[in-house]
Structure formats: structure tokens, C-alpha cells
Amino acid sequence: MLWSLEYLFEAPSMADPNLAYLSFLLLVPLSILFFLYLIVRPRPVRIPIKNRHVFITGGSSGIGLALAHQAASEGARVSILARSLDKLEDAKQAIRLATGIDVAVFAADVRDYDAVTKAVEEAGPIDVLIVNQGVFVPQELERQGLDEVKFMVDVNLIGAFNMIKAALPAMKLNRSVRGPASIALMSSQAGQVGIYGYTAYSASKFGLRGLAEALQQEVIADDIHVSLIFPPDTDTPGLVEGL
Q: Which regions span the lipid bilayer (predicted)?
């Protein structure tokens, strides 16, 4: 029995160099991952909006319009973007009546990168970008046309890429002077769990998570903070149309 115990304690010594080498190989990537976690881990950051530029897509109705009202009432310089100029003008008038403040309006389709780039350049550097546009046509994938699938993916996901890519260069400028910036991506409960009949819509919203998580790693050093929002069913024109 004593011999067995002695053997147990002595035998591993032959493998110690290999064990140490393997431990070192594991330690390096784990240390890198921990370091990256310290850099990009979510932290509560208060982003002031008074006297700062808040740019909202899908801002002519629903959640976007409500956010525009709130931002204007808190003293932000607000720009809203949507496809319909008529709806934008109605939204501008409603905000003016409620707050006494004029907001800038830009008619553009988020699927058109050149159009949103022009709108962003005209609006000026953005401090808070709220990527809020969204469309959905509920139907089982087998019965849904690929044109509708592409429409949802292009507006909900590719449109988000277009807006962020257009806004990011100017957002990064002089951040140490201008203070922290924010990019908020409006997802959905269907972006957390797949829902029957929402196959294409869920896919387009699930994609926003990957975009948000990877983008945060790329822009945190520029003091730009990315958030991903999952609102429940909300009484908006888009929801009514979908039902």
C-alpha cells in the first residue's frame, strides 16, 4: 500500500514538462479572452442627450416617433429618417406642437446606402444613433415569397449595416471632446426566440445581435457604446399592419 502511494506521487513527475507546456498553451488564449472581456464587457454608461445630436431611423411613427418626442423634450437636436416625406412632415408637426421644437427630417430608404450616407452628411455628426426601422410580414416560410424574405432582411438587417457604416466615421471624431456616443439597435422578442410564422423576421432580428456584439468590440476604444433593445409587442402602426 505504501509502495502504491509512493508510485502515485512519483509517476506524474515524468509528465510534468509536458503538463506545464500544455498548461502554458491553454493559459495564453484564456488570458487574451479575459483581457478582451475586461475591455468589452457591458458597463452601465449614461449617455447625455441635452444639446447633442440624436438621429433616429424609422422616426416618423411608432417607437421611433415616441423616442423623437422624448429626445426633443429633453433638449436634444433631433433628426428623424423614414421613407415617406409626408409622414415625416406629419411627425415634425406633431413634435413641434408637443415640444415647441423643430426636428430635422430626411426621406430615404435604409436599403439605399448612398441615400442614407447623403442624409447623414447633411444632418451632421451624430452622438446618439437609434437604428429603429423595421418591417415584418408574418407567414410560414414555405408559403412566403422570397421577395418578402429579402425585403425584411434588407430593411431590418442590411439597413442597420448601411446606417451604422454611414454614420460611424463622423461619430468617431473628437470623442474625447464631445463625450461618449451611443448606437442603439432595435431588435424584437422575435430576435431572442424563434416564433411560428416569423421565420424571416426572426432571422433578420437575430442577425442584429451578432452585429451589436462584434461592433461593440470594434468601437469601445472610441468611447462609442452599443446597445441591443428587445421591445415586446408594442401598439404601433407596423404591428397593426402585420396583424
A: 20-40
Give the separation between CA 97 and CA 30, rounded to whole angstroms. 56
Burial of 155-182, coded b for 16+ CB within 10 Å and e otherwise, reads bbbbbbbbbbebbbeebeeebeeeeebb
Q: Give the whole-angstrom CA distance, residue 72 versus residue 90.
A: 16
Q: Which residues, 6 or more positions from 50, have their beta carbon under 8 angstroms from its beta carbon?
A: 74, 75, 76
Place of cell 449617455: 47
State the first-to-last Cα distance of the chain, in angstroms, to the nearest integer: 76
SS3 assignment for 103-135? CEEEECCCCCHHHHHHHHHHHCCCCEEEECCCC
C-alpha 119/C-alpha 166 separation (Å) is 9
Top-tier CATH class for 49-242: alpha beta
Give 51's DSSP letter: T
Domain boundaries along the sequence of the chain:
49-242
| Contacts by 150-155, CB closer than 8 A, 24 or more apart | 152/200, 152/201, 152/204, 153/200, 153/203, 153/204, 153/207, 154/111, 155/110, 155/111, 155/204
DSSP 45: -
Per residue in 3-47, pLDDT (tens digit) is: 554 444 454 554 566 777 777 777 777 787 777 666 656 566 778
pTM above 0.85, yes or no: no
DSSP string of 142-168?
Answer: TTS-HHHHHHHHIIIIIHHHHHHHHHH
- In three-state secondary structure terms, 82 is strand
Residue labelled with grid coordinates 475586461:
38
Distance CA 160, CA 165 (A): 8
